[in-house]
Design goal:
The complex is a heterodimer of chains A (114) and B (558).
Chain A: H1 4-21, H2 25-52, H3 56-62, E1 70-71, E2 74-75, H4 76-111
Antiparallel strand pairs in A: 1-2
Chain B: H1 4-31, H2 33-39, H3 43-54, H4 57-70, H5 76-99, H6 104-112, H7 115-148, H8 152-170, H9 176-204, H10 210-213, H11 216-219, H12 227-241, H13 246-250, H14 258-289, H15 292-295, H16 302-310, H17 313-350, H18 357-381, H19 387-411, H20 417-439, H21 446-453, H22 456-473, H23 482-490, H24 530-545
Helix pairs in contact in B: 1-2, 1-8, 1-17, 2-24, 3-9, 3-14, 4-7, 4-14, 4-19, 5-12, 5-14, 5-19, 5-23, 6-7, 6-19, 7-8, 7-17, 7-18, 7-19, 7-20, 8-17, 8-18, 9-14, 9-17, 12-19, 12-22, 14-16, 16-17, 17-18, 19-20, 19-22, 20-22
Classes of the chains: A mainly alpha (114), B mainly alpha (558).
């Protein structure tokens, strides 16, 4: 009694990919869902960037006192706009790469019927 | 001020570049450098090459000068240049690599299926490339003037000639290994004197001109009029303009697939972040040791001047020579890359010289000369504009044209050719207007004048809006194969899917350009290693593309 299941999976595998190939509505849904998850990830990263780094000029404008603070003798704005900023950028990049690869792995698992 | 060691350093760098240009061809043939580079080389090495080419005159000299002159607000420049790569990573890297497009006009044609869009993109590539060449030549003129007192145009002429000599024989940008070496050379060139300078600062304690350092406007953010608008405009321009630079996009092709493209870009982020802390330090040190440069209008030369301000004799000479070498390496690598990209687009898309290889090479060489001469002319005209500001404006143009096209094209099925072209015209027109008005010193008053200084905050949203609205209006004329294109851009390569066939209108075939580390040097003489490049074409192009070349098949693996 061998696995009727594998052939079912195989049929499904053929289905999804060929749905995509034949550009049926269903195929489009699959690709769109991948696009959406990647886009959401990207926009999430952009949002974090915008609401932290991106808000800094506004913060400096509205609260000039922040611009005058010192940390260990170094003016706060200088610290924020060098070490902190670059660390954040690299961290976001690293996070993005990990998540994006995960999204793609999920998608290919889906296509292979796993 | 004469500095023999520096002259020697500059000459050495120039000769080394020429030698590499001459040998590079042969190297890449025998070693299949591009082939090896795109397959066997780690993302770090690839990333070093990309960073090496990206770090131009502005990064090396300009930003330190601006920080010296204008203080903390200018820190947004290096942040922007790096964050721009982050946005590239997040929205563009993998899909662009998967598209198989080699240049931005390629991508435009693939996604929009329109020759008009391709031509418009080509024009923009030429414009942006020329704009970006200007600060490189400026930096060269500045360097030579600082070192020898020669007039600026002398250095500009020298770098123009060297670039021509580099590009004309084989039309090839340097081999990946050399570009990677350039990055580490530039890093070393900036880092070494810094150690000495910081040491001097420590030992000198109070030092001269301490008062000059802690001027409120300089230390605290948002000094000056309209500072908030200008800062945000700068942020928008740099964050969104990186992805629109011609020599940046081309480098993506050197990655084997979309996944590698992402990882390489991440490595670039790390390398850039590390590098950009250095010009900031120079700007700050300049405030301590050389604040008079600001008043003299020579803030741009702070990096080169600092060692001789702090030390005398051989130490100063040696350090200055090192900096001069790094600076010249910066101009040369970026300029060569730009000239090759622009001349390639010019000769292929915009200049019709009849078919065949011979004509192709001749067209390319003529285009090279045209590009260099025009860039030189523009440099002389734009003499008054500071190096980093010229770069800002270039980013603004790229952010207002190619950025919306890329972002909307990759993530939105609804972008049409008409919409894209309309947006590029609007965004490009406004930002180019700003460029012209800055160059010719047209002083416009009030709000309009401020926008003309830094147009991005207005032109970028406007371009996006135009593209969206016009695309919606021309919905009926959407590109026919959008669905397939989307699959091509987004589906991981190892999945077997029909990605459609992509035959961008290319005058000269691809094989030539895969034979080295990614540049638009297509009109390669077939006699020089055509075999190797032919193979390289299939393999380098093959990781994603072999599955693409099966238009009608929907065969699935079992």
């Amino acid at each position: 009694m061998t696995s009727p299941r594998t052939s079912a999976a195989r049929t499904r595998t053929v289905s999804i990919a060929s749905e995509i190939d034949e550009q049926t509505r269903l195929g489009e849904v699959y690709i769109t869902s991948l696009m959406r998850s990647q886009l959401r990830l990207g926009l999430g990263v952009l949002l974090v960037l915008a609401s932290t780094l991106g808000l800094l000029p506004l913060v400096f404008a509205v609260f000039p006192a922040v611009g005058r603070l010192d940390v260990l003798g170094v003016p706060l704005p200088w610290l924020l706009l060098t070490v902190v900023a670059f660390t954040e950028i690299v961290a976001l990049g690293w996070f993005y790469v990990r998540q994006a690869e995960r999204n793609e792995a999920t998608f290919s698992d889906l296509l292979e019927g796993r | 001020m004469s500095n023999a060691a520096s002259i020697v350093a500059v000459v050495l760098v120039s000769i080394a570049s020429l030698a590499v240009g001459a040998f590079g061809l042969r190297l890449s043939r025998t070693m299949s450098d591009f082939y090896v580079a795109s397959r066997g080389v780690s993302p770090v090495l690839n990333a070093s090459a990309i960073s090496g080419e990206y770090l131009s005159a502005a990064s090396f000299l300009g930003v330190a000068g601006l920080i010296l002159a204008r203080g903390v607000d200018m820190l947004w420049l290096p942040i922007g240049w790096t964050a721009g790569y982050l946005l590239l990573l997040v929205f563009v890297a993998a899909p662009l690599r998967r598209s198989g497009a080699y240049t931005l006009p390629d991508f435009a044609q693939l996604r929009l299926e329109s020759v008009v869009a391709r031509r418009a993109s080509s024009l923009l590539v030429v414009a942006i490339g020329l704009l970006y060449l200007i600060p490189q030549f400026q930096g060269a003129g500045l360097t030579l003037r600082t070192l020898t007192g020669a007039p600026s145009w002398a250095g500009q002429l020298v770098v123009a000639v060297v670039v021509c000599l580099n590009v004309l024989p084989g039309g090839m940008r340097s081999v990946t290994l050399v570009q990677a070496f350039h990055y580490w050379l530039k890093l070393l060139a900036l880092l070494t004197p810094l150690f000495f300078l910081l040491g001097a600062l420590g030992s000198r304690g109070g030092g001269p001109d301490v008062g000059a350092v802690f001027v409120t406007d300089w230390v605290e953010p948002l000094g000056g009029d309209n500072a908030l608008y200008l800062t945000y405009s700068l942020v928008l321009a740099t964050f969104f303009g990186t992805m629109g630079l011609p020599h940046v996009v081309v480098r993506f092709y050197t990655n084997p697939d979309g996944r590698a493209a992402r990882r390489t870009t991440l490595a670039v982020l790390v390398l850039l972040s590390g590098f950009y802390l250095l010009p900031v330090a120079y700007g700050a040190l300049g405030r301590y040791f050389a604040s008079d440069l600001v008043a003299a209008g020579r803030a741009d030369s702070v990096v080169l001047e600092l060692p001789s301000r702090v030390f005398d004799g051989p130490v100063a000479e040696g350090l200055t020579a090192l900096l001069a070498a790094g600076a010249f390496a910066a101009f040369l690598s970026t300029s060569t890359g730009l000239v090759v990209s622009v001349a390639g687009v010019l000769s292929q898309d915009l200049v019709r010289w009849g078919v065949g290889h011979r004509q192709g090479i001749r067209a390319f060489r003529l285009s090279t000369v045209i590009v260099v001469v025009v860039a030189l002319g523009l440099t002389l005209v734009a003499a008054g504009v500071p190096v980093a500001h010229a770069v800002e404006l270039t980013f603004a143009v790229a952010a207002s044209t190619f950025c919306p096209m890329l972002l909307l094209g990759i993530w939105w099925r609804g972008l049409t050719a008409t919409g894209a072209v309309a947006g590029m015209v609007v965004g490009g027109g406004l930002s180019m207007g700003a460029v012209l008005s800055t160059t010719f010193g047209v002083a416009t008053a009030g709000w309009f004048g401020v926008v003309m200084t830094q147009p991005a905050a207005v032109s970028v949203p406007l371009a996006f809006a135009t593209m969206v609205l016009v695309s919606l209006a021309t919905r009926s004329r959407a590109p026919e194969h959008v669905a397939q294109t989307m699959v091509r851009l987004h589906a991981p390569e190892h999945i077997d899917l029909n990605r459609g066939s992509f035959h961008p209108e290319r005058r000269y075939r691809r094989p030539a350009r895969t034979s080295q580390s990614g540049s638009a040097e297509s009109p390669e003489p077939a006699s020089q290693g055509g075999q190797v490049s032919g193979t390289a074409d299939h393999t380098a192009y093959g990781s994603g593309e072999s599955t693409a070349r099966r238009p009608g098949t929907t065969v699935r693996r079992g």
